[in-house]
Amino acid sequence: MEKVIIIGCGGAGKSTLARKLSKILNLKVYHLDAMYWKPGWEMTAKDEWEKLINQVIEEDSWIMDGNYGSTMDMRAQAAGTIIFLGYSTPRCLYGVFKRRIMYHRRTRTDMNEGCPERLDWEFIKWVARYKREKAPDIITKLEELKLQGKEIFHFTNPRETDEFLKELINKRRSIN
């Protein structure tokens, strides 16, 4: 695993998984939210965004966490491993509300400075609809990418993700 993307619903724990994987694999993490959102929640322009993503893709190894559909195909083609956190809607909503409370009036570690945690109705609706509206297309795309030789992991709950991490740690230990 040298080039990894982690995708999934908001609140699933993509950034947390990215940090854990980074420690195990010794790979640099790029949190797409921190790259995309400038201080004050200002969006990055489309051409600048694609340029930033291309710069990361050209590196020898990395972990990128985040969805950002406009660059999903280019990131998926560059990655060797794709991890999809397809957790339940209640689990993701729980993660979103927990994060909002934990980072009240503060900026998360996986965000750009000047972007304090916030939660609005549009985001809550997006999370609530994700499993029904977004996940089926992602699963279809992952099946296509698997046929292209990509290593695909689809975890449906945090327990599966934790088991994957434990197995990865054990494999790394047996190699060293």
Report on the architecture of this protein:
With 176 residues, the protein is an alpha/beta fold. The protein has a single domain, classed as 3-Layer(aba) Sandwich (Rossmann fold). 53% of the residues lie in helices and 15% in strands. Strands 2-5-1-6-7 form a five-stranded parallel sheet, with helices on both faces. A hairpin with a 3-residue loop joins strand 3 (37-38) and strand 4 (42-43). Helix 5 (89-102) runs antiparallel to helix 6 (121-133). The chain is globular, with a radius of gyration of 16 Å.
Note the topology:
Blueprint: E1 3-8, H1 14-25, E2 29-31, H2 32-36, E3 37-38, E4 42-43, H3 46-57, E5 62-65, H4 72-78, E6 81-85, H5 89-102, H6 121-133, H7 135-147, E7 151-155, H8 158-175
Parallel strand pairs: 1-5, 1-6, 2-5, 6-7
Antiparallel strand pairs: 3-4
Helix pairs in contact: 1-8, 5-6
Task: Please name the defining characteristics of this protein.
single chain, 176 residues, alpha/beta, Rossmann fold, five-stranded parallel β-sheet, two-stranded antiparallel ribbon, 8 helices, 15% strand, globular
- Biggest sheet: strands, sense, closure? 5 strands, parallel
Uncertain stretches: none
Got a strand count?
Answer: 7
Helix-strand pattern: EHEHEEHEHEHHHEH
Strand order of the largest sheet: 2-5-1-6-7
Query: What portion of the residues fall into strands of 2 or more residues?
Result: 15-25%
In helices, the fraction of residues equals 40-55%
CATH homologous superfamily designation: P-loop containing nucleotide triphosphate hydrolases
Which structural class fits the helix and strand makeup?
alpha/beta
Overall, the morphology is globular
Our Rg estimate from Cα atoms comes to 16 Å
Instruction: Kindly report the average pLDDT value.
Output: 94
CATH architecture: 3-Layer(aba) Sandwich
Measured distance between first and last alpha carbons: 16 Å
